[in-house]
Amino acid sequence: MQFEYLTETTERLEVKPMNTEDYEQWVKGYAGRAMPQSPFDEGCLEIFHYSKAWFQRLIAQQQALIQSDDTYVFGVFRKADGVHLGNFNLVTLARQHFQWAECGYAIHNQFWRQGYAYEAFTAIFKTAKRLKYHRLEAHVHPGNHASIALLKKCGFEYECTRTQFIFENGEWTDRLVYYINLNDTPPLHPTSF
Protein backbone atom coordinates (compact mmCIF):
# COMPACT_ATOMS: atom_id res chain seq x y z
CA MET A 1 0.00 0.00 0.00
CA GLN A 2 1.34 3.44 -0.93
CA PHE A 3 1.93 5.77 2.05
CA GLU A 4 1.77 2.90 4.53
CA TYR A 5 4.20 4.83 6.74
CA LEU A 6 1.38 7.35 7.31
CA THR A 7 -1.08 4.74 8.61
CA GLU A 8 -1.83 4.59 12.33
CA THR A 9 -4.19 2.33 14.22
CA THR A 10 -5.87 2.71 17.58
CA GLU A 11 -8.05 0.32 19.52
CA ARG A 12 -11.03 0.90 17.20
CA LEU A 13 -9.69 2.87 14.25
CA GLU A 14 -7.40 2.88 11.25
CA VAL A 15 -6.37 6.39 10.20
CA LYS A 16 -4.67 6.49 6.81
CA PRO A 17 -4.40 8.24 3.47
CA MET A 18 -7.23 6.87 1.38
CA ASN A 19 -6.77 4.84 -1.77
CA THR A 20 -9.11 3.91 -4.61
CA GLU A 21 -10.13 0.67 -2.87
CA ASP A 22 -11.79 2.75 -0.12
CA TYR A 23 -14.54 4.04 -2.43
CA GLU A 24 -17.41 1.78 -1.25
CA GLN A 25 -16.75 2.45 2.45
CA TRP A 26 -16.34 6.16 1.75
CA VAL A 27 -19.75 6.18 0.03
CA LYS A 28 -21.34 4.32 2.97
CA GLY A 29 -20.00 6.87 5.42
CA TYR A 30 -21.25 9.88 3.49
CA ALA A 31 -24.55 8.26 2.45
CA GLY A 32 -25.38 7.43 6.06
CA ARG A 33 -25.25 11.02 7.27
CA ALA A 34 -28.29 12.39 9.05
CA MET A 35 -29.77 15.85 8.49
CA PRO A 36 -27.53 18.68 9.79
CA GLN A 37 -27.12 18.50 13.56
CA SER A 38 -25.58 21.97 13.99
CA PRO A 39 -24.78 25.07 11.93
CA PHE A 40 -21.30 23.58 11.37
CA ASP A 41 -22.52 20.26 9.96
CA GLU A 42 -23.13 19.73 6.23
CA GLY A 43 -25.52 16.89 6.94
CA CYS A 44 -26.68 14.68 4.07
CA LEU A 45 -24.88 14.78 0.75
CA GLU A 46 -26.29 13.76 -2.59
CA ILE A 47 -23.70 11.05 -2.93
CA PHE A 48 -24.80 9.97 -6.41
CA HIS A 49 -22.78 12.92 -7.75
CA TYR A 50 -19.57 11.20 -6.65
CA SER A 51 -18.73 8.37 -9.04
CA LYS A 52 -15.88 5.92 -8.70
CA ALA A 53 -14.04 7.80 -11.47
CA TRP A 54 -14.48 11.06 -9.54
CA PHE A 55 -13.14 9.36 -6.39
CA GLN A 56 -10.11 8.04 -8.28
CA ARG A 57 -9.30 11.61 -9.38
CA LEU A 58 -9.73 12.81 -5.80
CA ILE A 59 -7.31 10.18 -4.52
CA ALA A 60 -4.76 11.06 -7.22
CA GLN A 61 -4.98 14.73 -6.15
CA GLN A 62 -4.58 13.84 -2.48
CA GLN A 63 -1.58 11.63 -3.21
CA ALA A 64 0.09 14.42 -5.21
CA LEU A 65 -0.42 16.79 -2.26
CA ILE A 66 1.19 14.24 0.08
CA GLN A 67 4.18 13.84 -2.23
CA SER A 68 4.68 17.61 -2.26
CA ASP A 69 4.41 17.81 1.58
CA ASP A 70 1.56 20.29 1.10
CA THR A 71 -1.51 18.52 2.52
CA TYR A 72 -2.06 15.12 4.11
CA VAL A 73 -5.67 13.90 4.00
CA PHE A 74 -6.53 10.92 6.18
CA GLY A 75 -9.62 8.77 6.14
CA VAL A 76 -10.81 7.54 9.51
CA PHE A 77 -12.07 3.94 9.28
CA ARG A 78 -13.60 1.70 11.92
CA LYS A 79 -11.47 -1.44 12.16
CA ALA A 80 -14.40 -3.73 13.01
CA ASP A 81 -16.22 -3.23 9.70
CA GLY A 82 -14.12 -0.83 7.59
CA VAL A 83 -16.76 1.92 7.56
CA HIS A 84 -15.50 5.41 6.77
CA LEU A 85 -16.20 7.61 9.80
CA GLY A 86 -14.76 10.90 8.56
CA ASN A 87 -11.58 12.72 7.60
CA PHE A 88 -8.65 14.54 9.17
CA ASN A 89 -6.05 16.63 7.39
CA LEU A 90 -2.71 18.24 8.06
CA VAL A 91 -1.82 21.26 5.93
CA THR A 92 1.81 22.38 6.00
CA LEU A 93 1.94 26.07 6.87
CA ALA A 94 5.73 26.32 7.19
CA ARG A 95 8.69 23.97 7.38
CA GLN A 96 12.32 25.01 7.92
CA HIS A 97 12.59 26.46 11.44
CA PHE A 98 8.87 26.19 12.21
CA GLN A 99 7.58 22.67 11.35
CA TRP A 100 4.04 24.04 11.55
CA ALA A 101 0.75 22.64 10.25
CA GLU A 102 -2.95 23.34 10.45
CA CYS A 103 -5.18 20.40 11.25
CA GLY A 104 -8.77 19.95 10.20
CA TYR A 105 -11.26 17.24 11.02
CA ALA A 106 -14.82 16.10 10.40
CA ILE A 107 -16.61 12.99 11.64
CA HIS A 108 -19.86 12.03 9.88
CA ASN A 109 -22.72 13.07 12.14
CA GLN A 110 -24.15 9.55 12.51
CA PHE A 111 -20.94 8.70 14.40
CA TRP A 112 -20.84 11.71 16.72
CA ARG A 113 -20.53 11.37 20.50
CA GLN A 114 -18.84 7.98 20.35
CA GLY A 115 -15.27 9.18 20.99
CA TYR A 116 -14.08 8.63 17.42
CA ALA A 117 -12.70 12.16 16.88
CA TYR A 118 -10.71 12.06 20.12
CA GLU A 119 -9.36 8.60 19.29
CA ALA A 120 -8.47 9.68 15.75
CA PHE A 121 -6.55 12.65 17.16
CA THR A 122 -4.30 10.23 19.08
CA ALA A 123 -3.38 8.63 15.76
CA ILE A 124 -2.96 11.99 13.99
CA PHE A 125 -0.55 13.17 16.70
CA LYS A 126 1.66 10.12 16.10
CA THR A 127 1.64 10.69 12.35
CA ALA A 128 2.31 14.42 12.77
CA LYS A 129 5.33 13.63 14.94
CA ARG A 130 6.56 11.15 12.33
CA LEU A 131 6.24 13.94 9.75
CA LYS A 132 8.35 16.12 12.09
CA TYR A 133 5.67 18.72 12.74
CA HIS A 134 6.36 20.61 15.94
CA ARG A 135 3.21 22.74 16.11
CA LEU A 136 -0.37 22.01 15.08
CA GLU A 137 -3.04 24.68 14.88
CA ALA A 138 -6.79 24.35 14.53
CA HIS A 139 -8.85 27.33 13.35
CA VAL A 140 -12.35 27.14 14.83
CA HIS A 141 -15.51 29.21 14.38
CA PRO A 142 -16.22 30.94 17.72
CA GLY A 143 -19.68 29.36 17.88
CA ASN A 144 -18.51 25.79 17.33
CA HIS A 145 -18.53 24.80 20.99
CA ALA A 146 -18.35 21.04 20.32
CA SER A 147 -15.16 21.47 18.30
CA ILE A 148 -13.64 23.75 20.94
CA ALA A 149 -14.41 21.17 23.65
CA LEU A 150 -12.80 18.42 21.55
CA LEU A 151 -9.64 20.45 21.00
CA LYS A 152 -9.31 21.21 24.71
CA LYS A 153 -9.83 17.54 25.57
CA CYS A 154 -7.04 16.66 23.11
CA GLY A 155 -4.62 19.09 24.78
CA PHE A 156 -4.89 22.09 22.45
CA GLU A 157 -4.68 25.52 24.05
CA TYR A 158 -6.37 28.76 23.00
CA GLU A 159 -3.89 31.20 21.49
CA CYS A 160 -5.78 34.06 19.87
CA THR A 161 -8.72 35.20 17.82
CA ARG A 162 -8.02 36.07 14.20
CA THR A 163 -10.61 38.66 13.24
CA GLN A 164 -12.17 38.57 9.79
CA PHE A 165 -9.87 35.67 8.98
CA ILE A 166 -11.88 33.61 6.47
CA PHE A 167 -14.47 34.54 3.86
CA GLU A 168 -17.50 32.28 4.10
CA ASN A 169 -21.22 32.65 3.52
CA GLY A 170 -20.66 36.04 1.92
CA GLU A 171 -18.74 37.67 4.78
CA TRP A 172 -15.41 37.73 6.58
CA THR A 173 -15.62 35.74 9.80
CA ASP A 174 -13.42 35.30 12.86
CA ARG A 175 -11.56 32.16 13.87
CA LEU A 176 -10.28 31.07 17.24
CA VAL A 177 -6.79 29.61 17.04
CA TYR A 178 -6.00 26.60 19.20
CA TYR A 179 -2.54 25.04 19.14
CA ILE A 180 -0.52 22.15 20.50
CA ASN A 181 3.25 21.69 20.43
CA LEU A 182 4.03 18.04 19.79
CA ASN A 183 7.72 17.59 20.41
CA ASP A 184 11.10 19.13 20.91
CA THR A 185 12.66 17.48 17.87
CA PRO A 186 14.84 19.94 15.96
CA PRO A 187 13.52 20.78 12.50
CA LEU A 188 14.63 18.75 9.52
CA HIS A 189 16.79 20.35 6.89
CA PRO A 190 14.42 21.94 4.34
CA THR A 191 15.75 19.75 1.54
CA SER A 192 14.43 16.68 3.38
CA PHE A 193 10.98 17.34 1.92
Automatic annotation (TrEMBL):
Keyword Ribonucleoprotein (UniProt): no
Domain N-acetyltransferase: 13-183
UniProt entry tagged with the keyword Disulfide bond: no
Entry GO MF terms: acyltransferase activity, transferring groups other than amino-acyl groups
Record keywords, A-Z: Transferase
PANTHER family: GNAT FAMILY, PUTATIVE (AFU_ORTHOLOGUE AFUA_3G00765)-RELATED-RELATED
Protein name: Ribosomal-protein-S5-alanine N-acetyltransferase
Species the sequence originates in: Staphylococcus simulans
